[in-house]
Write a structure and sequence with these properties.
By secondary structure, the chain is an alpha/beta fold. The chain is built from twelve helices and 17 strands. The chain is globular, with a radius of gyration of 21 Å. The two termini are 14 Å apart.
């Protein structure tokens, strides 16, 4: 039988990293580890309890209007905290937390990301905080808290109209801002971190990219002033690699003008990053994986099929092609279409079609195996129970609340 998805990979020590490990966060939701196939899937476990009221001792955040809290526990047992104001949705908070864990998940065989325990530990020791204020950022109106901001108007929910329509008036800045937090407090920039060699390479490449025109392209006079400010505050590396990240993971693929970051960066798709900024691609892959392997909890307004494979006629798939995990929320009878990776697909309370495509794909159901009836019709499997009547196509595994089962054994 094929090995169950999520089994740990082993690599070698390289660069500032340690020994290589699993490329995914574990089922408990914290950094490192591998899944427990005998219990409910992490997605089910995190339906409740992740987002809480602000704990005692954070009156400064409460005074600034923050009313909810989530955290990621580093290997040293200390929290990396997230605070959100009242107009930030729970799904926005889940996405921010999942992206943070994605950035901290080990990447087997990579030069600086093979073992990120020390990166997470530095973040916790440096009291890293992500703050999610309401609305949009305006100069002089920032919350008076010591935190990296990610504003409501720059944090779309996957599968929302905002995400599907690629609204660049309110661009998705979540990947950028959350990586800034990891970069500043974990990798290390102006305060000590776990990857000084990696930071030195990033800074050198940022400066080289300005000189040869790959980044900081002067699309207007304000760019030169911005670069001067970044240089003065020691932030060139952070902004350069954030531009690479956004284009590498497809966020600018649907942009109707050349380049990423409104044209400040030379590339807007992964293919262009490889062709036009090979050093940037290499530096990114020293720390991050090819797929956006975080759970994308999709907006409950989603209808029809959410595709996780590229279709040039469907612009949002520039981004979604790099997802591996998708969860439908709400009650609409919608569908998921996986890609060539090992996808994890979960339906909602409606009747869903989950098509894994190629790869070793897993469908998630939160109830125990005995709560469901299963019928097989050719290549389609119907699973009926508390979650509705869901049709599985090209799915190799089903993760019930009491364990993982191969579809060939259903």
């Amino acid at each position: 039988m094929t090995a169950a998805p999520g089994s740990t990979g082993v690599g070698t020590t390289a660069g500032d990293g340690g020994s290589a490990g699993d490329t995914r966060a574990d089922e408990t939701g914290e950094t490192g580890g591998s899944p427990d196939s005998g219990s409910a899937h992490r997605s089910c476990q995190e339906d409740e309890g992740v987002i809480q009221a602000i704990p005692a001792g954070f009156d400064n955040y409460a005074a600034e209007g923050f009313d909810r809290y989530a955290e990621v526990i580093a290997p040293n047992g200390l929290p990396i905290r997230i605070f959100a104001q009242d107009q930030v949705s729970d799904l926005m908070i889940h996405r921010a937390r999942n992206l943070l864990r994605f950035y901290l998940a080990d990447v087997a065989g990579s030069m600086y990301g093979a073992d990120k325990d020390d990166v997470a530990n530095f973040m916790a020791d440096n009291e890293a905080v992500l703050a999610m204020p309401n609305g949009a950022h305006t100069e002089g109106n920032e919350p008076n808290v010591p935190a990296q901001p990610l504003y409501q108007d720059e944090a779309p929910v996957d599968g929302s109209a905002w995400y599907l329509d690629n609204d660049y008036e309110h661009r998705d800045a979540a990947l950028e801002e959350i990586f800034h937090l990891v970069h500043d407090t974990g990798i290390g920039t102006n305060i000590p971190g776990a990857r000084p060699k990696y930071q030195a390479l990033l800074d050198a490449e940022a400066r080289a990219s300005i000189e040869d025109g790959r980044w900081a392209i002067p699309i207007d006079p304000g760019v030169a002033r911005w670069i001067e400010e970044l240089d003065a505050e020691g932030s060139l590396a952070q902004e350069y690699i954030a531009s690479v990240i956004d284009s590498y993971y497809g966020l600018w693929g649907a942009f109707d003008e050349p380049g990423g970051m409104w044209g400040i960066y030379i590339a807007k798709t992964r293919a262009e990053v490889y062709r036009l900024d090979a050093p940037g691609a290499a530096l990114l892959e020293h720390f991050l994986p090819p797929y956006l392997d975080y759970e994308a909890r999709l907006d409950p307004t989603l209808t029809g099929t959410f595709a996780m494979r590229f279709d040039p006629a469907v612009p949002y798939t520039h981004k979604s092609q790099y997802l591996l995990q998708a969860t439908l929320t709400g009650t609409n009878d919608s569908s998921l279409l996986g890609n060539a990776g090992d996808n994890t697909l979960r339906g909602n309370a409606g009747n869903n079609r989950l098509d894994g495509g190629d790869g070793q794909d897993t469908a998630v159901f939160c109830g125990s195996r005995g709560d469901y009836t299963v019928s097989v019709d050719g290549k389609e499997i119907t699973v009926s129970g508390p979650d509705g009547n869901d049709t599985l196509v090209s799915v190799e595994w089903v993760h019930f609340g009491d364990g993982l089962v191969a579809t060939s054994d259903l």
